Amino acid sequence: MVSIEAVDTTANNLGETTGLNTELDQIWATICTGLRRDLGAQIFGQWIKPIKLAQFEATIGELQLVVPSEFAANWIRDRYADRLTLAWKSHFPDVRSLTFSAKAGAARIAKVKQVELSGQNSSENISKFRLDLDARMTFDQFIAGNSNVLALNAAQRVAAPEKPLFCPLYLQSSTGQGKTHLMHAIGHAYRIEFPGARIIYMSAERFMIEFVTAMRRNEAMEFKASLREADLLMIDDIQFIVGKNSTQEEFLHTVDALISQGKRVVVAADRPPQALDGVDQRLLSRLSMGLVADIQSAGLELRRDILKHRLAGMPHQKVSDDVVEFLARTISRNLRELEGGLNKLLAYAQLTGRDITRELAEEQLSDILSACRRRITIDEIQRTVCEYYRLERNEMSSKRRARAVARPRQVAMYLAKVMTPRSYPEIGRKFGGRDHSTVIHAVKLVEQLRGEDSEMDNDVRMLLRQLES
After folding, report:
1. Helix 403-419 crosses helix 436-452 at what angle (to 10 degrees)?
2. Is 368 in contact with 410 (CB distance < 8 Å)?
3. For a 10 Å CB count at each end of the chain, is N or C smaller?
């Protein structure tokens, strides 16, 4: 059990020493000293100095921080959350996670003291397993599309008051496609429906560490009891639990016990159950007996919707549809990279005062774009365009100016600029040694025609799909 002593710190700016002689103030002052040295005065002043403490939730180990704007919250969360979390954990182990929110006005610190009750067993400590949920990852912040709608609907059923028709729910996707977001969303929604419920969310790695630690301390029975008292158990990255016989055995018994009690179990992995290497067949059977919901890679439309959703929450940020389309088409490996690229672009534009243009995106996101682009060649583009328009391949380099030839050639130049890292002069050389100004004219013309001519826009979309497939 915990008792909470509230300390009013209305004017407490965590980037400065306030003189309040509290443990958390002193820890933050130490952390700030290191951050100012590591990040430099300019970055520290821009991002770290404005942070304020809001509240510390001892039962889940969550330290809530307040920043001046939603943009700042996103930027700090993406760039410095891991560094800040590690710093707090090293100085104050009770902090297990940080949340960042944009709120104005007074902030309060809740200073927590753990109090031991007479006769209380360690297995009854409510902070034994902490619920580390990201406040951003809720159902209303999850953008649905054809690739993830099954998983979303299944996750919502798990969190609903009615008992789901399946257990466990097995979420499967490659990295960065949203399975962890759905698990956090389940936790948030279930906590609202059942405020007194016992919810446990942890990674498979943490499950193994906790289990081994309990074994070493002769607390295995307490560990098992704590898990089996859960109303909702969620284990992420289950692929890392394979190959560990004793851990698999314990996890199997835990899942069996919870299912037999009508409790809810959710697991997530980067591959389907049948593809897990070294997994016990009994555990494989349990994981497969519920619903396996596959999240496919996000398609272009979903990537576009996600970017637009993010930007809708930042109306002061001006990003053209052309830039959104470019990012959605180019950063296609996973959604985490897509949002990270957008955040980097927004921050650079804000700090430098430059407009967010296609050229700025190519310049500042070159590392991400290079990694994400499939190595499509100009030769491949020319071949595909010629097949689509039923032209001979040599027409891409010919001097003919007939519209039936010139327009497909211009489309191919446009696609070469959109889908390859080649410069205008390099593209021109591949099209019969044409000048770079000819390529620039072709790119601008096709961009204009796409907005005016639905047939042209449809042609380009079809070619993009063929080349990306």
Report:
1. 100
2. no
3. C
The span from the CA of 199 to the CA of 234, in Å, is: 8
Question: Token match 């407490």: residue?
Answer: 12
Q: What is the mean pLDDT of residues 189-197?
A: 91
Higher-pLDDT residue of 316, 361? 361
Residue pLDDT, tens place only, 393-406: 999 999 888 999 99
- Cα(183)–Cα(22) distance, integer angstroms: 35
All domains in the chain, ordered by first residue: 2-115 (3.30.300.180), 139-294 (3.40.50.300), 301-369 (1.10.8.60), 378-468 (1.10.1750.10)
pLDDT tens digits, one per residue of 266-275 = 999 988 888 7
- Residues tagged in the binding site annotation: 176, 178-180
pLDDT, position 130: 53
- Summarize the annotated binding site for ATP as residue ranges: 176, 178-180
Q: Is the pLDDT of residue 18 over 50?
A: no
| Contact indicator for 63, 23 with CB cutoff of 8 Å | no
- The whole-chain average pLDDT of the chain stands at 81
Per-residue confidence band for 9, with pLDDT thresholds at 50, 70 and 90: very low
Give the per-residue SS3 of the chain.
CEEEEEEECCCCCCCCCCCCCCHHHHHHHHHHHHHHHHHCHHHHHHHHCCCEEEEEECCCCEEEEEECCHHHHHHHHHHHHHHHHHHHHHHCCCCCEEEEEECCCCCEEEEEEECCCCCCCHHHCCCCCCCCCCCCCCHHHCCCCCCCHHHHHHHHHHHCCCCCCCCCEEEECCCCCCHHHHHHHHHHHHHHHCCCCCEEEEEHHHHHHHHHHHHHCCCHHHHHHHHHCCCEEEEECHHHHCCCHHHHHHHHHHHHHHHHCCCEEEEEECCCHHHCCCCCHHHHHHHHCCEEEECCCCCHHHHHHHHHHHHHCCCCCCCCHHHHHHHHHHCCCCHHHHHHHHHHHHHHHHHHCCCCCHHHHHHHCHHHHHHHCCCCCHHHHHHHHHHHHCCCHHHHCCCCCCHHHHHHHHHHHHHHHHHCCCCHHHHHHHCCCCCHHHHHHHHHHHHHHHHHCHHHHHHHHHHHHHHHC
State yes or no: pLDDT of 279 exceeds 90: no
